[in-house]
Amino acid sequence: MALCLVATMSRRAGQRTARAPRRHANFCGTLPAAFLHGKAAGQHNGTVSAQEIDQYLAALDDQKRATLAVLRQRILDVIPEAEQGISYGLPAFKVRGKTIAGFAAFKNHLSYLPHSGSVFPQLKDELKGYSTSSGALRFEVGHPLSAALVEKLIAVRLRQAFPG
Q1: pLDDT tens-digit readout, 22-57
Q2: Could you tell me the fold of the domain covering 50-161?
Q3: Distances from the Cα of 67 to the Cαs of 57, 104, 129, in angstroms?
Q4: b/e per residue, 116-151, with b = 16+ CB within 10 A?
Q5: pTM of full prediction above 0.85
């Protein structure tokens, strides 16, 4: 079931409300209903289990699920120690408490999320042909990012998160 709203907690009396996401006008959410109830509801940055990434992927159509499953494995190949979970309502991978990578499914594309606006400028040549914003690298369904590119993206982010 696709959802187009994100649950948040109202500042008034802790009432649960729904609002459209601010940053993604074309977001036609892929969050399973479980994310709007229970542990993840109202949390924007709480890390939860890898099982919830499984649930996120299970809610997608076959092609999106398969493409993101490849990306997930490529991320884990580079940072096998990463804690898998949900950050800002989307799959994310944390190392020593810092979010290093993530991904998302949208209506017409998929995105790699570096959780830093300064990763992509360092990889301009490698990202030619991709559409990017400061926080998302968009790619086509059915065309996962290469293992080499994922490794470079994560290497830049790790250097930022853990300098020296």
Answers
A1: 333 333 343 333 333 333 333 434 444 899 999 999
A2: Aspartate Aminotransferase, domain 1 (3.90.1150)
A3: 10, 11, 18
A4: beebbebbeeebeeeebeeebbebebeebbeeebbb
A5: no
